[in-house]
């Protein structure tokens, strides 16, 4: 290669049926720029939000988007909810039992992608229990970082019943209802980096 020749970088995005989507390849999750949050209710009224800071995995984008794959591993001890007392309780045997079940995983099984979003159905394993869960996913855009890396951002959301995963601890309230809601919303903002390996 002469000094005037340059290496052509493959495009990180493409247009499919008029919509901008990520190029095929393996997009590795950047844990430092990823937010995986859950929202439950306390006393059946107050929203309590927590997040996991240890999120690893990848989004493998296929030439045919319906053949794409998502694999995520979550370190359950990395929970942060704004209260150290509550975090310790969440990690305890009453709830996540992180010593026995240190990780949760999501492995996709089916992708139905249309335009810039779609449904990703996969196996979610929490507390040693696996259930099929649909994620509503959207591609939020692409940017090239100052170091030449290509980054794709995705958002996702779903709702689960924690008792489906054998996380059943609760306290009945004197006036009726339960201390902690069974239904939990999950909201994800995922920043990924295109692997060059």
How does this structure look, described?
This protein is mainly beta and 197 residues long. The chain has a single domain, classed as Lipocalin. Helix content is 4%, strand content 54%.
The average pLDDT value, as a whole number, equals 87
Ranges with pLDDT <50 over ≥5 residues? 171-179
Distance between the termini: 21 Å
Which structural category do the helix and sheet elements fall into? mainly beta
Report the radius of gyration as a whole number of Å: 19 Å
In total, the number of domains comes to 1
H and E order: EEEEEEEEHEEEEE
Number of strands: 13
Q: How many helix segments?
A: 1
CATH domain class name: Mainly Beta
- What characteristic shape results from the CA principal axes? elongated
CATH superfamily: Lipid/polyisoprenoid-binding, YceI-like
Q: What does the largest sheet look like?
A: 8 strands, antiparallel, barrel
CATH topology: Lipocalin
Q: How do the strands line up in the largest sheet?
A: 3-6-7-9-10-11-12-13
- Second-tier CATH architecture: Beta Barrel
How helical, in percent, are the residues? under 10%
Report the portion of residues in β strands.
over 45%
Oligomer: single chain
Concise structural overview:
The chain is mainly beta.
Summarize the topology:
Layout: E1 13-16, E2 19-22, E3 25-29, E4 35-42, E5 46-52, E6 55-61, E7 69-75, E8 79-80, H1 84-91, E9 103-114, E10 117-126, E11 129-144, E12 150-161, E13 183-194
Antiparallel strand pairs: 1-2, 3-6, 3-13, 4-5, 4-13, 5-8, 6-7, 7-9, 9-10, 10-11, 11-12, 12-13
């Amino acid at each position: 290669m002469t000094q005037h020749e340059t290496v052509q970088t493959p495009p990180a995005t493409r247009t499919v049926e008029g919509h901008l989507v990520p190029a095929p390849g393996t997009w590795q999750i950047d844990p430092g720029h990823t937010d995986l949050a859950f929202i439950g209710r306390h006393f059946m009224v107050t929203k309590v939000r927590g997040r996991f800071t240890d999120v690893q995995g990848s989004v493998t984008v296929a030439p045919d988007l319906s053949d794409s794959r998502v694999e995520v591993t979550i370190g359950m001890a990395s929970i942060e909810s704004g209260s150290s007392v509550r975090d310790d309780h969440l990690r305890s045997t009453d709830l996540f039992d992180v010593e026995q079940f240190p990780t949760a995983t999501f492995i996709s099984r089916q992708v139905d992608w249309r335009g810039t979003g779609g449904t990703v159905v996969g196996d979610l394993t929490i507390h040693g229990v696996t259930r099929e869960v649909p994620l509503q996913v959207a591609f939020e855009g692409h940017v090239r970082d100052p170091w030449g890396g290509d980054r794709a951002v995705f958002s996702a959301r779903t709702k689960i019943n924690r008792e489906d995963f054998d996380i059943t601890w609760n306290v009945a309230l004197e006036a009726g209802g339960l201390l902690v809601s069974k239904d939990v919303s999950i909201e994800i903002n995922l920043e990924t980096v295109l692997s060059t390996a």
